[in-house]
Amino acid sequence: MTHETNNHYAIETRGVNLYYGNFRAVKDVDLQIVPQKITAIIGPSGCGKSTVLRSFNRMNDFVPSFRMEGEILFHGQNIYAEDVDPVMVRQRIGMVFQKPNPFPKSIYENVAWGARINGYKGNLDELVEQTLRDAALWDEVKDNLKKSGLSLSGGQQQRLCIARALAVKPEIILMDEPCSALDPIATLKIEELMRELSRQYTIIIVTHNMQQAARASDYTAFFTMDDDRAGLMVEYGETHQIFTNPRDQRTEDYITGRFG
Amino acid sequence: MNNIFTSPRSILAARHARGKFWRGVFFSSTLIGLIALAALILTILNRAAGLVVITDAVDRNSLAGRPLTELTRPELVTILQDHLTRTRLRTLERNNGPLDSLDEETLINLVMEQVVKPTIRKSYTLAETLFQRAAIEQEIAAMRAETPNLQVEFRSWLNPGFLTRSMSATPELAGVRTAVLGSLWIIAITILVAFPIGVGAAIYLEEYASENRVNRIIQTNIDNLAGVPSIVYGILGLAIFVRTLSHLTSGAVFGIQGSNGRTILSAGLTMALLILPILIINAQEAIRAVPASLRQASYGLGATRWQTIWHHVLPNALPGILTGTILAISRALGETAPLILVGASSLINKDPTGVFSFFTALPIQIYNWTARPQPEFRNIAAAAILVLLVVLLSLNSVAIVLRNRLSKRGT
Ligand SMILES: Nc1ncnc2c1ncn2[C@@H]1O[C@H](COP(=O)(O)OP(=O)(O)OP(=O)(O)O)[C@@H](O)[C@H]1O
Ligand SMILES: [Mg+2]
């Protein structure tokens, strides 16, 4: 079951093909995510970035037509193996969505709920405070934790969603265009926060914002669409190298704005 | 000044005319609805109050030369003893206790019922009372010439006595207590049975059932069942609950003797069947309206399906589910046909004491009274309709308050 040699990757995919029904959305992805780093996934719209990201914590399971081939290894263990409980996978690999989606509950409850259902035994108040501090939201909300999460601004809501994900104590946080609904200042705040969080967490972020990928990530994976509309990974490497010295013509065209 | 937003006058005029036309059409639809509603309420109110002309079998003022309310208790007892036979008195004492021990109100009631025996010669509607006073006075004067001891009084047929008395063959003495209690018992059972089953089925269909042929057939059937005439449910209830399960619905398995399946339990279960499709469809709609982003957020935190349903889907769907429940309760409370089939009897005057009691219900009583020949029954039918409306509105307002409280939470 376990492949000791691969344990130094947070996530490793092997020959991954992702399908919606008969349509192959993503083909032949081999990708190694380095722990405690920020990995950006970029590429034109529809090339399967979200599909890949959601397959990392089995969120695609809710799409009835979804099917996958290959292996996605977490600590060397295939998360799509027969005996794997997807609920456990999602506890270890958290997710932040494109549109901020706090629960219609109090700020406190938003953070505490995930910990509580996962059987957190410690002091919830302390956990909520610590997590909100980690998400750089504490100072803004500490006086009204009872207020509804929906009463916050978009940027605050997104940080609340990050805090909510942190409270479950995952190892990896997946972010699907987390800043696309935010203004530049809120975006910068989230980027700073990601940098801070990457000391403890592995972060994988999908983004359409080239500057954001260049600024905020350590590694970048560039995806594009093949002629059969299936997405594929063109190039993967250190962000600096991808943006200054891309090896593939398609990558260069994309980051210089000659595509998409 | 010519501005880029100015359209030619003719176009503008045509557009305004069209706008006015449609506005008028929609406004008249609303108006027609309002007029129909007002007409309905006015007809009911018109019958529920008005002048009545009463004759006494024995003139109430001639009994002791003074109004009954001024008499002492011993005097009232004497009147009863003077006017009633020995056997009749004995029956009264058996039912009510010794005459000397009764309070004044009961005694006056007994005198009225047993001795004075008022009968209504004529009753007028509220509209007649208000707008044709002169004609009524004339008619009454003519009646006075024949029968001297006429009482004329303004009566609201919906009065405390009407609410607290039970069924009687005389309209003046009939009341709706038994029927109201019957309706409340039935509704209680209906809700207790239908709500959990309906919500449960909706959860299954929305959250668990996969897209396959069997589930599609189930769904289509539920949608169609909502439109099945209520009498069909009555037949079903009669066959299943009253007949087949009679040892259960009569309470025989719990040791209750001498009963049959025509009980409140059968009626409640039949009504539950009747509203189940409505409840399921509404609950499904409410569950479907819970945004997918909430579910994703929950699953993304490592929540199980059940945790997601229990903590997020249901609380957010509950206001919508309650709205559906309000509709369903209104339907169940007003249904008559299925109750007749499962054995409601308008002759019952004993209050229901539990789910195994025989029963009558408000719509049954109304139906029965409107079918009687004496015009006074139509008056009390109108009063009973008002009672039904009030019961309905109070049940609904409970649900509405509950719903508003729930939907305020969290936002
Ligand atoms: N639930 C689904 N069912 C069927 N097809 C889907 C589903 N979700 C995505 N697809 C298809 O899979 C392909 C990849 O979609 P995906 O959402 O992963 O793209 P993306 O790279 O995230 O695009 P964007 O940048 O616009 O978010 C698209 O062709 C899309 O139509
Ligand atoms: Mg996407």
TrEMBL record, chain A:
The UniProt record lists the keyword Chloroplast: no
Keywords: ATP-binding, Nucleotide-binding, Transport
One Gene Ontology CC term in the entry: membrane
Pfam families for this protein: ABC_tran
Segments forming domain ABC transporter: 11-255
Alphabetized InterPro entries for the sequence: AAA+_ATPase, ABC_transporter-like_ATP-bd, ABC_transporter-like_CS, P-loop_NTPase, PstB-like
GO biological process: phosphate ion transmembrane transport
Recorded GO MF terms: ATP binding; ATP hydrolysis activity; phosphate transmembrane transporter activity
Bilayer-crossing regions: none
Protein name per its UniProtKB record: Phosphate ABC transporter ATP-binding protein, PhoT family
Organism: Anaerolinea thermolimosa
Automatic annotation (TrEMBL), chain B:
GO biological process terms, semicolon-separated: phosphate ion transmembrane transport
Example of a GO MF term: phosphate transmembrane transporter activity
UniProt topology in membrane: Multi-pass membrane protein
Domain of life: Bacteria
Gene3D superfamilies per the UniProt record, alphabetical: MetI-like (1.10.3720.10)
Sorted UniProt keywords: Cell membrane, Membrane, Transmembrane, Transmembrane helix, Transport
Annotated compartments: Cell membrane
Principal cellular location given in the protein's record: membrane
ABC transmembrane type-1 domain segment(s): 180-399
GO cellular component: plasma membrane
InterPro entries the UniProt entry points to: MetI-like, MetI-like_sf, Phosphate_PstA
Transmembrane segments: 21-45, 184-205, 225-244, 264-283, 380-402
Protein family per UniProt: Belongs to the binding-protein-dependent transport system permease family. CysTW subfamily.
NCBIfam families documented for this protein: 3a0107s02c
Protein name: Phosphate transport system permease protein PstA
